[in-house]
Design a protein that fits this description.
With 596 residues, the chain is an alpha/beta fold. The protein is built from 21 helices and 22 strands. Helix 1 packs antiparallel against helix 6, helix 8 runs antiparallel to helix 9 and helix 12 crosses helix 13. The structure holds ligand C2E and magnesium ion (MG) (2 copies).
Length: 596
């Protein structure tokens, strides 16, 4: 009997090679026909022995497509390395009661040559059967074995099509996945480490390809593939899984050993390689992940290695290990991106409004519309988390349209209830890809009978204005119509007043990271004071965000900051609460600190 692990390995290989594919069977039919003709038997079969049955993937002279494994003669044949020949099945105690002998087929003769792959695994047999007893000569037996080898070659050849990367000649990702699947069944108890390498950044490859043509780039990748193989011992198969990426599996390596190996690989890889006549240094980043050889873990290995590799690329590290936390974070991002459209259709989004105060008379003068998402399974999600995710999707403009519509409708109500009270909305760079953004907004303003001067648009500071050529003309059109433009989060990144001259701005909102805790940080005090002074000299009004304490407010007043917004003054709240708050202010004593 085959031991269980051999059997599992064989079954995995049958799956990996896709041996049951009818197209493979058809391509083998000529060999089966040749076998029947050469040996003069009425029946010739290619039989594959899987977990519970044997299947005749190519057959001559037999209507039967499969039998259960228990009654399979081929199942015995695959246990030996040579031919199993039984001249008369009735005389063999193992088979005399077999239904194929006693039943209507009345089979008497059997000769089966095992189909043994290069890795030494027998998948099934090429077998001959006859209803008369007979015997193959030694010469005929050799011929049958030769035909069996041709069958295996044909199988491996067919299955290797599409399994090699033509540039390096190495097995590709499909083969990696297939081999992992075999490994996972063979070695269920062992621990392995999957390694995914990136040896050249795609942008540089593209640049070099444009300048020099693709051949030198392909040559670089070939040389990189050779270097990886040189460093790895012979028993480690290297796979070329994506244009600039290679993968392999290590067995029984400690973390220290893996990291030492990655260090050696990096050292070897980063020596310059010639691309055309230019010496170039391949980069080296590795994502690694331990795994048990079980089908589920092996099936997920490439994805996990990609999570680790992307971490290494971002951190510009030689090697990063897979982190379940990072994976969960990425999956959550993906989930938010895929659930947002449904969220929008099902009214899971809402707006809250945070009042903003004029520091000259301490009156609330406007409110900023802030988006909220209550996910049915994940609960409330902060816009700080979902906006950056959705900004990378085509849904962001749709979501902004929703914000525009709802905020404008509320602004129209306030125009009636709170004359002069303005509304701020946040727009993201992606919104400006829509060249109809302003036209659409103007249409909504008309619909709601709103004066453009009641609306302020907040955009974040940044270089994005240069990469979105449609943004400036639209901002200018908005400003020309009377909409105020504010730069949000000023001072949080690489702040620069230089590029602001091109934008028709009226307000600068000083980022809360500088304002909160102002009283305690000398650097923040210097920065905020300087920003306010310079902004005023350039003719902008200033707004401080994130005012949480009285001390901050006093300093801001001292420096002449025009407006303030923050938890100390008022938290984001419902539209109705804003209405009550503003009415109370207009009626009574100004600026009560927020109860929270
Ligand atoms: P932002 O536009 O700078 O909005 C101010 C954020 O600071 C809000 O967070 C607000 O709740 C919070 N905040 C206000 N006062 C204080 C304070 O005193 N202390 C602290 N720690 N925080 C304060 P929120 O609502 O979580 O929004 C975060 C960011 O998400 C916003 O920053 C904005 O960039 C973005 N966002 C929110 N709504 C929208 C929207 O409708 N469209 C777009 N494109 N982005 C939005
Ligand atoms: Mg804002
Ligand atoms: Mg801000």
């Amino acid at each position: 009997m085959l031991d269980r692990s051999q059997d599992l390995e064989r079954i995995a290989l049958i799956e990996a090679l896709n041996v049951m594919d009818p197209a493979l069977g058809r391509s083998l039919d000529p060999i089966t026909e040749l076998a029947a003709f050469t040996f003069g038997t009425p029946i010739a079969l290619i039989s594959i022995v899987d977990a519970d049955s044997q299947q005749f993937i190519s057959r001559v002279g037999l209507a039967l497509e499969r039998t259960d494994r228990h009654h399979s003669i081929c199942s015995c044949a695959i246990e030996s390395s040579c031919i199993l020949q039984i001249s008369d099945l009735r005389e063999d105690p193992r088979f005399r009661d077999n239904p194929i002998v006693t039943g209507p087929e009345r089979m008497r003769f059997y000769a089966g040559a095992p189909l043994v792959t290069r890795s030494g695994i027998a998948l099934g047999t090429l077998c001959l059967m006859d209803r008369e007893p007979r015997e193959l000569s030694a010469n005929e037996q050799r011929q049958l074995q030769t035909l069996a080898r041709i069958v295996v070659n044909q199988m491996e050849l067919t299955m290797s099509v599409g399994r090699r990367e033509p540039i390096s000649g190495l097995p590709n990702r499909q083969q990696f996945q297939a081999d992992l699947s075999v490994l996972s069944r063979r070695d269920g108890a062992s621990r392995f480490t999957g390694v995914l390498l990136d040896v050249f950044d795609l942008q540089s490859a593209n640049d070099a390809g444009q300048a020099l043509g693709l051949k030198p780039v392909e040559s670089l990748l070939r040389q990189a593939a050779l270097r990886v193989q040189e460093v790895m011992s012979d028993d480690v198969q290297v796979y070329h899984v994506a244009a600039t990426r290679f993968a392999f599996v290590l067995r029984d390596h400690s973390h220290d050993q893996v990291e030492a190996l990655m260090g050696r690989l990096r050292e070897r890889m980063r020596r310059p390689l010639m691309v055309g006549s230019i010496p170039m240094s391949p980069q080296f980043h590795a994502g690694v992940c331990d795994f048990h050889a079980d089908p589920e873990e092996a099936g997920d290995l490439v994805r996990k290695c990609m999570v680790a590799l992307n971490h290494a690329l971002h951190a510009d590290a030689c090697v990063c290990w897979y982190s379940a936390d990072r994976d969960a974070h990425l999956r959550r991002r993906y989930r938010l991106a895929s659930d947002a459209a449904r969220g929008l259709a099902q009214d899971q989004f809402s707006l809250v409004y945070q009042p903003r105060y004029d520091l000259s008379d301490d009156q609330p003068v406007s409110a900023e519309a802030l988006l909220r998402w209550t996910h049915p399974m994940l609960g409330p999600i902060s816009p700080g988390e979902f906006i950056p995710v959705l900004e990378c999707t085509a849904l962001m403009p749709q979501l902004s349209q929703w914000v525009i519509e709802h905020a404008f409708a509320q602004a129209a109500r306030w125009q009636q209830q709170l004359p002069g009270f303005a509304m701020s909305i946040n727009l993201s760079p992606r919104d400006f890809d829509n060249e109809q953004l302003w036209t659409g907004m103007a249409e909504r303003l008309r619909m709601h009978g709103l004066a453009p001067t009641q609306i302020e648009v907040e955009i974040t500071e940044g270089q994005w204005l240069h990469s979105h050529p449609a943004a400036l003309p639209q901002l200018r059109a908005m400003a020309a119509a009377g909409v105020r433009i504010a730069i949000d989060d000023f001072g949080s990144g690489y702040s620069n007043f230089g590029y602001l001259s091109e934008v028709p701005i009226s307000h600068i909102k000083v980022d809360q990271s500088l304002v909160t805790g102002l009283a305690r940080s000398r650097t923040a005090r210097l920065k905020v004071e300087a920003i306010i002074k310079l902004a005023h000299q350039l003719g902008y009004r200033t707004v401080a965000e994130g005012v949480e304490h009285e001390g901050e407010l006093s300093l801001l007043r001292l420096w002449g900051c025009n407006e303030a917004q923050g938890y100390y003054l008022a938290r984001p709240m419902s539209a109705e609460a804003v209405t009550q708050l503003v009415l109370a202010h207009r009626a009574g004593p100004p600026l009560e600190p927020d109860a929270d």
